[in-house]
Amino acid sequence: MKVLVVGATGTLGTAVTTLLATRHDVVTASRTGRTDVVVDITDPASIAAMYAQVGRVDAVACTAGSVPFKEIGELSREDVESAALNKLLGQVELVRRGLDSVADNGSFTLITGILSGEPVRTGSMSSMANGGVDAFVRGAAVELPRGLRINSVSPTVFTESVEVYDATFPGFPPVDVSAAALAYRRSIEGAQTGQTFRVGW
């Protein structure tokens, strides 16, 4: 199986790539240039160019999408647009632009997170984007052609990142990033669609 991992250089992307590479032909993509392909998911033209370069794939796994963490009274219009473009609209566009590049019975797996259901201070933009992605997954699942499937992975804070995010997620039990990577394997190799696979919550 040929799997395209978008956001492959981050904490989660590295774990997903490492796990899947033992079982599949993995093509990596990110903004950093330290991957097989360069892509900016906030730019539709960049997404289209990535698919043209990579060619036919059996699965797309997205681990990319940043959001600003600020108190709601401190958020600018640019912050709101950044959250929408990076994590929500970027992933929607990844699916929309990828319909003709994913083989019959292939799949898309997107990233969301615990803040869709368990909000924290400074996390309203993450809650917005995560909730939007989860809702999009449910809606798209009933429309995708040719047996294509779509799911999202929704982890809590990672053990590997807890030192950075401990104050933002007070008292949240962390989960190893390897557990989230397994959820990607479940989505890619399994049969379910329209699901949000919660990891650690």
What distinguishing features does this structure have?
seven-stranded parallel beta sheet; Rossmann fold; 39% helix
Question: Describe it for me?
Answer:
With 201 residues, the protein is of the alpha/beta class. It has a single domain, classed as 3-Layer(aba) Sandwich (Rossmann fold), CATH 3.40.50. It has helices at residues 11-20, 44-54, 77-98, 124-141, 162-165, 177-189, and strands spanning 2-6, 25-30, 37-38, 57-62, 102-111, 149-155, 195-199. The protein has a 7-stranded parallel β-sheet, with helices on both faces. Helix 2 (44-54) packs parallel to helix 3. The radius of gyration is 16 Å and the shape is globular. The two termini are 30 Å apart. This is Short chain dehydrogenase. GO terms for molecular function: oxidoreductase activity.
The CATH homology group name: NAD(P)-binding Rossmann-like Domain
- Number of E strands: 7
How widely separated are the two ends? Answer: 30 Å
- Low-confidence parts: none
How are the strands of the largest sheet arranged? 3-2-1-4-5-6-7
Order of helices and strands: EHEEHEHEHEHHE
What's the CATH C level? Alpha Beta
Instruction: Determine the strand fraction and express it as a percent band.
Output: 15-25%
- The pLDDT mean sits at 97
> What is the alpha-carbon Rg in Å?
16 Å
Give the biggest sheet: 7 strands, parallel
CATH architecture: 3-Layer(aba) Sandwich
Structural class: alpha/beta
What is the CATH fold-level name? Answer: Rossmann fold
Taken together, the total number of domains comes to 1
What's the number of helices? 6
Roughly how much helix do the residues carry, as a percent range?
Answer: 25-40%
| Shape field | globular
Protein name: Short chain dehydrogenase
Keywords: Oxidoreductase
Family: Belongs to the short-chain dehydrogenases/reductases (SDR) family.
GO molecular function, one term: oxidoreductase activity
